[in-house]
Design goal:
Layout: E1 2-5, E2 12-15, E3 24-28, E4 38-41, E5 44-54, H1 56-65, E6 69-70, H2 76-86, E7 95-102, E8 108-110, E9 132-138, E10 144-148, E11 153-160, E12 162-166, H3 175-185, H4 187-245
Parallel strand pairs: 7-11
Antiparallel strand pairs: 1-2, 3-12, 4-5, 5-11, 6-11, 7-8, 7-9, 9-10
Length: about 250
């Protein structure tokens, strides 16, 4: 629609476009089931296992089974969130496996291939003492420690949230209005109306031409019939007169 805005010098026409409906995206985590529940932070979901302990490899396989990976920690905010989440579990589990481990080249890498841009090592860690190639997070402080991968620990799984698209709801249309719009605005309906109108005009013109020609023919033949009747009457009268004289 357009709107005219008054101005002392001139009038400007401003085109105002109606907003279009756009889908809204909502993230959600898997439904809780049995003893397992997921928590949401930013665009990810986390499952914290404190009831059963596993070594690092077993924990990694269990996260994979849940369509997740052992958790990577990308920044300080995420680290604080997980630290606060596991702190109440300190009495049950002292530490939790996260997704960092050391490769054959001595590099610390995340299981899900996230870039290592943030670390939160405990003091004097990583110590690389013995065969310590996996990383645990302390429940008491949230700091990290390198440990032997065979140790039994709790673990934290992480996955991206599921995206659900919800279309913006439109107000319901009244049937009468919709029908009127279809009748008046449909190109197909307009085309049929034009065709019907043309047929009616042609039919009317044809009928008018037919009656005009018929009337003209009648006017043309009427004097001939009249003259023939007069001639016959004259001949009859003449024959009667001749018969009377004889």
């Amino acid at each position: 629609m357009s709107r005219i805005v008054g101005d002392t010098a001139r009038k400007k026409e401003i085109i105002v476009l109606a907003p279009t409906d756009s889908p809204q995206l909502f993230g959600r985590c898997p439904e809780s089931e049995e003893h397992r529940s997921w928590v949401h932070f930013h665009s990810h979901c986390y499952y914290i296992e404190s009831s059963y302990t596993k070594n690092w490899a077993q924990a990694s396989r269990e996260c994979t089974r849940l369509d997740a990976t052992l958790a990577s920690i990308e920044d300080h905010a995420e680290s604080i969130f997980l630290s606060h989440s596991i702190k109440p579990l300190e009495s049950k589990i002292t530490s939790f496996w996260i997704g960092m481990s050391k490769n054959v080249n001595g590099q610390w890498l995340w299981r899900d291939n996230t870039a290592v841009d943030f670390v939160n090592w405990n003091e004097e860690e990583p110590s690389s003492y013995g065969n310590e190639k996996c990383v645990e997070m302390y429940a008491s402080s949230g700091y990290w420690n390198d440990a032997q991968c065979s140790y039994k620990r709790g673990y934290i799984c992480k996955k991206s949230e599921s995206i659900k698209t919800v279309l913006t709801e439109k107000p319901p249309e009244r049937k009468g209005e919709k029908k009127d719009e279809e009748v008046s605005g449909s190109p197909t309906n307009i085309t049929w109306l034009v065709i019907i109108l043309v047929i009616l005009i042609l039919s009317g013109s044809g009928c008018a031409a037919y009656f005009y020609v018929k009337k003209k023919n009648q006017d043309h033949f009427l004097p001939i019939v009249t003259r023939m009747s007069d001639t016959k009457a004259s001949v009859d009268n003449q024959e009667q007169d001749e018969h009377a004289v004889a």
